Amino acid sequence: MRRPILYGADYSVYVRIARMALEEKGVGYELVPLDIFAAEGIPAWYLEHHPFGRIPAFEHDGFRLFETGAITRYVDEAFDGPALQPADARGRARMVQISGMLDAYGYRAMVWDVAVERLEKTPPDEALIAGGLNQAETVLKALTSLKAKGPWLLGEQLTLADLHAAPIIAYFVKVEEGRKLLSRFPVLQEWWDRIVVRASFSNG
Questions:
Q1: Of 119, 132, 146, 189, whose CB is crowded by the most CB atoms within 10 A?
Q2: Which residues have C-beta within 8 Å of that of residue 127, sequence separation ≥ 6?
Q3: Which of 77, 45, 101 is nearest to 57 (CA)?
Q4: What is residue 1's predicted lDDT score, i.e. its pLDDT?
C-alpha cells in the first residue's frame, strides 16, 4: 500500500492535528505543501481534493477525505499502532464533544481573535482580543470540567481529543495573554506540559 498523502501547510492548526495523529500511529506519510493564503490563490487541481479549498485534505490508495475529524478517525482505524479512540461509547462521545467544542468555540477565539490578532496585526484590535480571551476562558473552564482523572483529557489513554486540543492551544500560548490564562487552570497546564514533550507534537 502506498504511503498516505496529506495536503496542507505547516502553519495550519488542522493540518497539525492530522500530522500528530499520523505520528502517534507511526505512519509514514507525504506532506504536499499547499498555502491557501498564497497570492495566486488556491490551485484549481486542489478543489478536486477539497471542494471548499480548505486544508487539510488526505488521500490513501485512491481514497480521499477532507475534514480533519474524518481524517484522524480513518488514520486511527486504518493503520496499526496504539488506539487513539476510547473503546466505550461514552468515551468516544466525550472525545467527539471535546473536539466539537474546540472547533465551534475555541479555534476562532484562541487562534485568530487572540494569537493572530496580537502577533500579526498592527495595531491589533484590543476589543477583539479581549472578546477572544473571554471566550477562551469559557472554553478552558468547560475543558477542565470535561477532563477525566489521569494524564490525558479522557484519562489514562491519549486520544484524538488530546491531539485536537494541542495545536489550538499551541497557537494560543504564543502570546502572553494566552499563557497567563492557561496557567489559571492547573489541570490543563499540567496536561499541556505533558503533551508538548511528545514526539508527535515536535514532529507534527
A1: 132
A2: none
A3: 45
A4: 64
Q: What's residue 2's pLDDT? A: 85
> In terms of residues, how long is the chain?
204
* Residue numbers of the chain with a pLDDT score lower than 70: 1
Neighbours of 33 (CB within 10 A): 10
What's this model's pTM, rounded to 2 decimal places?
A: 0.96
Residue from 78, 99, 70, 69 nearest 26 by CA? 78
Q: Report domain extents, the chain.
A: 5-78, 89-199
pLDDT per residue as tens digits for the range 30-44: 999 999 988 899 999
Q: What is the CATH number of domain 89-199?
A: 1.20.1050.10
CB atoms within 10 A of CB 28: 8
The domain covering 5-78 belongs, at the CATH homologous superfamily level, to: Glutaredoxin (3.40.30.10)
Helix and strand numbers (H, E) in the chain are 10, 4
Q: What is the greatest pairwise CA distance in the chain? A: 51
Residue labelled with grid coordinates 491519549: 158
Pick the closest to residue 21 from 79, 63, 98 (CA basis).
79
pLDDT 10s digits, 158-197: 999 999 999 999 999 999 999 999 999 999 999 999 999 9
- How many angstroms separate the Cα of 57 from the Cα of each of 53, 140, 144, 180, 204? 9, 29, 31, 34, 15
